[in-house]
């Protein structure tokens, strides 16, 4: 699998594995199967959070399961582990205050059984805490060697710009990766995001990422399985011509539609106006290998143009 440099220090595989459901709706055995298969295919970039998946359990399950797997399999240093702080867990944990960051990093390190996190995300913005307080807390973690790089998720673009300008003016670590909802289908303009911050990527966000040469880690990029099955289409997305096109292209190539979406996402950087995109997706072992065929598909310039121009 191809590798990409993030923030000049993390060499990550071109697709990341989402660990959100590990230990809750995905059993330990199945989670191990998926993790082992992903690593066997050359993947090294694993995405979790300090609150996954609290809506199905306590919120400790995903990191704890990953910690067990890391202990059982070894090879921690070959992997790039991303986790997150600042999102709600059963009414606690939301926010990016200094003491919250200091508490939750140690919890994540403990559960994962590691002494550093490669990529630490602010999971969502905190408008009530001064930006400097948050950045200084993160910067201290970098200095202590507890985290290697910083990412943001679910920030409005203007807030991220403000934070990174603050970081630069004060000589603090900046957010160098954005994680945001992005897929090939268009979100419905009329649909309010489920949470205020849970906004899908739009043109303005893409322009910002290109201008700042920042990579996008695209979450929910398989649209929860909607490319394969209409019944899985989330209410805030349109299927329409784009869905039909992906399915047609998949049939012509003899692959599944999600593989076409992964091919499109990983090759978007070739098109003007798009940043480097790293898809992060969840798959059962039943779908993983089929989806991964996407990284072997080379889409022609004409195909990329057609996909981009389809409404
Ligand atoms: N930063 C954030 O706020 C945020 C928010 C959400 C998610 N994330 C991250 O992004 C990762 C992925 O997000 P996600 O789980 O929301 O979305 P996703 O990857 O778009 O969707 C996963 C769902 O798609 C199904 N699927 C995948 N391939 C399929 C195929 N070939 N055929 C049929 N169904 C298929 C999976 O079913 P099977 O299990 O049956 O394969 C699973 O139910 C998470 O694990 C997490 O790490 C981050």
3D structure, described in words:
The chain is globular and about 55 Å long. Helix 2 (61-73) crosses helix 3, helix 3 (98-112) packs parallel to helix 4 (131-143) and helix 7 packs across helix 8. The protein has ten helices and ten strands. The chain has an eight-stranded parallel barrel with strand order 3-4-5-6-7-8-9-10, surrounded by four helices. The protein is α/β, with parallel strands linked by helices and 311 residues long. The mean pLDDT is 95. It has one domain (3-309): Alpha-Beta Barrel (TIM Barrel). The structure holds NADP nicotinamide-adenine-dinucleotide phosphate (NAP). The site of NADP nicotinamide-adenine-dinucleotide phosphate has 25 residues, from strand 10 and helix 9. NADP nicotinamide-adenine-dinucleotide phosphate is lined by residues 18-20, 47, 153-154, 179, 219-225, 228, 256, 258, 280-284, 287, 290-291.
């Amino acid at each position: 699998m191809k590798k990409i440099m993030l923030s000049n220090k993390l060499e990550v595989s071109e697709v990341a594995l989402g660990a959100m459901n590990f230990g809750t709706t995905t059993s330990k055995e199945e989670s191990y199967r998926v993790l082992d298969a992903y690593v066997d295919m050359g993947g090294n970039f694993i995405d979790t959070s300090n609150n996954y998946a609290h809506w199905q359990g306590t919120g400790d399950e995903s990191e704890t399961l990953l910690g067990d797997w890391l202990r059982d399999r070894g090879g921690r240093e070959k992997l790039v582990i991303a986790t997150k702080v600042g999102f709600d867990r059963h009414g606690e944990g939301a926010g990016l205050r200094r003491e919250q960051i200091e508490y939750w990093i140690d919890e994540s390190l403990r559960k994962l059984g590691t002494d550093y996190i490669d990529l630490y995300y602010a999971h969502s913005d905190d408008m009530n805490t001064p930006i400097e307080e948050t950045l200084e807390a993160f910067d201290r973690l970098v200095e202590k060697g507890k985290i290697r790089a910083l990412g943001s998720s679910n920030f409005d673009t203007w807030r991220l710009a403000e934070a990174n300008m603050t970081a630069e003016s004060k000589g603090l670590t900046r957010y160098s990766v954005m994680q945001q909802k992005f897929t090939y289908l268009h979100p419905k303009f009329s649909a309010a995001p489920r949470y205020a911050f849970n906004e899908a990527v739009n043109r303005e966000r893409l322009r910002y990422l290109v201008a700042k040469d920042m990579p996008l880690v695209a979450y929910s990029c398989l649209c929860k399985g909607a490319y394969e099955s209409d019944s899985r289409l989330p209410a805030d997305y349109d299927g329409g011509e784009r869905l039909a096109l992906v399915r047609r292209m998949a049939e012509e190539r003899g692959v599944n539609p999600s593989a076409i979406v992964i091919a499109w996402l990983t090759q978007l950087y070739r098109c003007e106006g798009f940043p480097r995109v790293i898809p992060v997706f969840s798959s059962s072992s039943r779908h993983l290998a089929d989806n991964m065929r996407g990284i072997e598909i080379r889409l022609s310039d004409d195909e990329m143009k057609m996909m981009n121009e389809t409404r």
